[in-house]
Prior knowledge:
Layout: H1 7-19, H2 35-46, E1 67-71, H3 78-84, E2 89-93, H4 102-112, E3 118-122, H5 131-143, E4 148-153, H6 155-169, E5 196-200, E6 212-217, E7 222-227, E8 235-239, H7 248-267, H8 292-314, H9 319-339, H10 343-355, H11 375-380, H12 383-390, H13 395-406, H14 413-416, H15 423-437, H16 454-461, H17 465-468, H18 480-492
Parallel strand pairs: 1-8, 2-3, 2-4, 4-5, 5-8
Antiparallel strand pairs: 6-7
Amino acid sequence: MAPAATRSTIFRLINASQHSACPCHGCRSATHNHAHHGALALNQLRKFATPVQTVEKEYAFEVAASNLRFGEGVTREVGMDLKNMKARKVGVFTDPIVAKLKPMQVAFESLESQEDLSFEVYDQVLAEPTEESWRKAIAWARQHDFSHFLAVGGGSVIDTAKTANLFTVYKDADLMDFVNAPVGKGLPISQTLRPLIAVPTTAGTGSETTGAAIFDVTSRAFKTGIANRALKPVLGVVDTANTESCPTAVHISAGLDVLFHSLESYTAIPYTERTPRPANPILRPAYQGSNPVADIFSMWALRTTVKYLPRIAKDRGDHEARSQMLLAASFAGIGFGNAGVHLCHGMSYPISGLNKKGPKYKHPGYVVDHPIIPHGVSVALTGPAVFQFTAPSSPDRHREALAVFNGVTVTDPSITSIPDSEVGAYLYESIASFLDGLGVPRGLKAVGYNKSDIPMLVEGTLPQRRVLDLAPNIGNVAGEDGREHLTRIMEASFEY
């Protein structure tokens, strides 16, 4: 069987069949006979695609993000916010740990301070949600007729609240109806959801700004999710007091998520290279490819994370560092929420998902009763190898990232003297060194995987088309080409 054709090959052959690629300066004259060229191109094309269709690239991008409120103690305003929104009954989501902490106590007091503001609390959100945990939360929400939602917690809590909101409106829909294709049906969301206020208690996911929600499909041992602008909260309340109680391990893992949200969105394929162009604006994905607006937010978040995350790792009481990381999480959320992520996240989903049945690794510092590779850690494990792989696609962007990690400007001789062909190798070392300083496990082997597990990890990555299609050097290939590259990256991430 012939190897699968890349999209660029198909475009080139289509162009050849339509425009007579020959030495006569692309002449299209009807009297100029180039039938031999057209026939040759069509014969080649039939090997790859039948019927022949012109695939148009994207020509536009959209910017969508939640309103944000940032400040010390702003959680106490949520009751007034909901009252101002004329909330009739509020569904409040949190997890068993946050339910006992100050952020939730302040939120309770704020809700109770408002007259005639009814609310019910769901405090059983699972860290690293699963299909089962989401279905339980959805069933609970459907029992009530909530007019508004409030989420107080990390990304798991906010994502669960988003999903409960969605299926409160779509009462007869099944969870998989809106899950990203090809895992689910990936149906568009056309109805208006209920207002959701998100109060993050970790500086990581940026879920307070985005229309993405992620969960673990345990039956298939990988993660996927729902990505649609309709899911984004109407307001993200970013309170710098809310990460005071976060354990150091959680700070680090959450910060790693910010780091790779920034890096991946900044190095994703340009939005003008994404295919196909949507036939209707409602079909334009939230993850669109790098674009000028997302670039600004992503690069600011990258610089801020590289500066402040090591400070939190040394002293979680560092107020300035905690505040800046919360802001970086939201900025990175705006960046990747409009550009997307790619390989580190795509490969992290089976890395964390298969852990429950395979290595059963439990990350130090996490107070849970089940195996867990925290999301940020699972993303970081492949980081050095991923950006060595993607560097040839845009050496200048990767050079900028290298300068950030090395603490110099992009015009510094130590950066400008590096040939384009070697930028990836230098960036590999700088990312690995940064992760070492945070105590991140050095590769898949360090969390219990064996080399024999790599094929399963690759199989779990292949369905993640939502993010793989934004990956340089992989987004434009299919079948075995993609599998081969992913295998090499996993092998390079086994230990370092």
